Known about the structure:
Elements: E1 26-27, E2 41-43, E3 47-52, E4 58-64, E5 69-70, E6 78-81, E7 85-90, E8 97-102, E9 106-111, E10 126-129, E11 135-140, E12 147-152, E13 157-161, E14 166-171, E15 179-184, E16 191-195, E17 200-204, E18 209-214, E19 225-228, E20 234-239, E21 245-250, E22 260-263, E23 271-276, E24 281-286, E25 291-297, E26 304-311, E27 318-321, E28 337-340
Amino acid sequence: MSFRKVVRQSKFRHVFGQPVKNDQCYEDIRVSRVTWDSTFCAVNPKFLAVIVEASGGGAFLVLPLSKTGRIDKAYPTVCGHTGPVLDIDWCPHNDEVIASGSEDCTVMVWQIPENGLTAPLTEPVVLLEGHTKRVGIVTWHPTARNVLLSAGCDNVVLIWNVGTAEELYRLDSLHPDLIYNVSWNRNGSLFCSACKDKSVRIIDPRRGTLVAEREKAHEGARPMRAIFLADGKVFTTGFSRMSERQLALWDPENLEEPMALQELDSSNGALLPFYDPDTNVVYVCGKGDSSIRYFEITDEPPYIHFLNTFTSKEPQRGMGSMPKRGLEVSKCEIARFYKLHERK
């Protein structure tokens, strides 16, 4: 008789979360109070950027990773926007370049000095104007340099050439309602978006066409998220009709039925998924939760395998995920998150 495997083989069965000690945290940061479901935080191997509460405009802090502890009230910020900043994203090709989208309808691209800020930064390197309402999403192209996608509350997706500050593509007829998030695929040939009309769309930006669309990916009316996985599948988070939080995995070739659908719990914070293409692990952080759940995505049913939960005392307001090249692999670190609390 063949001995049936009771426990699934997995390299990540014993992965655990380990918080750093208090002296390595950043304290006294007034995290932004904007009611927008972005992560409020972006991080790369050199800097941590956090959107902060600012009077009379929008600002974010850029801190070198070495500068931990209490952050002085007078610490210089990046403060060129005239309205609150909604989203920030570090350029994957240059660790000193960051893009920000704001309620003032503009996208700005900033060059951060090599050793961090010594004075407030008010002049962006590039100013991108083209949206008519606030810009809630900015995300860099994963493979092409100087290509930036922005999406606004005018339901328009713009793709920019940052070097020349020109619009490359303008996609204004594909989304009938507010866009919740946008995610590029691995090589940047397609992107997927989750929209308030409950549809998940896969879009070819160069042709400006819809490759695939799934209406009512999640029945609930609350915000959804969709991200591309390395093999081209799409992972979504959303809410069921009974307001239970769900995860789903979709095959773009056939969007009739999800490959897998799991219900988590009935909490009401939006779920923010972070994906690691090297290990095929998805980390799901709920806004206002105090836990991070992680799941392994595999090729055999049930496709989404729950691994573990990291729980802490304080709820998170936002989350930043460190790219792979900033991890200490010698200590077997496979992911690092920067978790925003109320003030630290």
